[in-house]
Structures are given as C-alpha cells and as structure tokens.
Amino acid sequence: MLLPISVALSSSSSEPENPEQVIEKLQSSLLQVMREGDKLSHEGRFKFLEPIIDESHDLNLIIRTILGATYWSQMGKEQQDLIVETFRKLSIATYAGRFNQYEGEQFQIVEQRALPREQVLVRSRLTKSDGGTVNFDYVLHQTDGRWRIANILFDGVSDLAIKRGEYRAILQRDGFQALIDMIKEKIVLTQ
Questions:
Q1: Total domain count for the chain?
Q2: What pTM value is reported for the model?
Q3: d(CA 36, CA 119)
Q4: Under 8 Å CB-to-CB from 75, ≥6 apart: which residues?
Q5: pLDDT digits (tens, 9 = 90+) for 155-171
Q6: CATH number assigned to the domain comprising residue 102
Q7: CA-to-CA distance for 96 and 74, rounded, in angstroms?
Q8: Neighbouring C-alpha atoms within 13 Å toward the C-beta of 114
Q9: What would the pLDDT profile of 116-175 be if each residue is shown by its tens digit?
C-alpha cells in the first residue's frame, strides 16, 4: 500500500504538470483506490487519497471562495486555519466515501480549454458499470507554478456554488462553531 503513495508523491517533485495531467493523475488514483476498495477501510482510502487531494486541489482557495471575502476577513488566523483543515478533511473523506468500490468504471478526458482569468477547464466523463455517465468538469488555476483544482462541476452543477449557499447561511444564522460542527458531522457521514 505504501508503494503507490510514494510513487504518487515522488512524481510531484518532477517538472510541473499541465491541467490535464493533474486530472488524469487524480482520476487514476480514484480508480486505484476503488479497485482496492474491498481491502481498504474508509480510513485506508482516506490515507491513500490524502496526498493526492492535497496536491491536486487548492482547498485553501476553495474554502475562502465558499465563505467569501467578508466572512473570511472577519475570522482570526486560528479560525481560518481551523476551517481550512476541517474542510480539507471533509474533502478527502468525501472522496474516500464515494470512490469505495470498482465495478468497471472508466474516466475519459473529453476536452481542455482556456477560461477567463487564466483558468483552464478540463472536462471529463465517468462511465459507470451500467453504462450511465457522470460529467466532471474541473476548473483549474495556477498557484506557485502548479495547476490546482479550484472548482468541480458534477453534470453542470458547481460544488462550490452549492457549498457557498449552505455554508454562508449557517455562518449568518448560527455562527462559526455551528459551521465547524456541521462539517465534522458530514465527515462522519462519509464513512
């Protein structure tokens, strides 16, 4: 189990990947963890995917965008660090919970195209074992010379937009601690 993780980590130190390569690496890791799904617990899948998600997603930017500049600037450094780390755990746990068994699924990159503000869209499709498909569109941007995911759309629905409405409503109605508690509950539900 350690070999695939170390191989994935060692490749990150080579030359920078283009947006399509980032998505291919993420998706091949998801298929790999699905194939190992019978042998791995949720915790095992989490540990396997943790370095992959950390490398491919700009989770700090994503949570800042979800919360918005106003809420983000009202938080102290300790709260910002807590929300980033809690959201990070939810993101990895969600992948570990959803990609838990392999039944012949296949990912295919459909296209890559430029977006405004120096972002890139990589469109891909997951073909399920029953022949059904799910479209995954990844919006990537460059940070520190590396392409990282800033948003994911599932069949055209923005994950970031859904979370933005939900998280901001909780912050406004119930406050910061309620948001942290809700995210922690969701982490438990992924198992």
A1: 1
A2: 0.90
A3: 33
A4: 83, 176
A5: 999 999 999 999 999 99
A6: 3.10.450.710
A7: 32
A8: 3
A9: 999 999 999 999 999 999 999 999 999 999 999 999 999 999 999 999 999 999 999 999
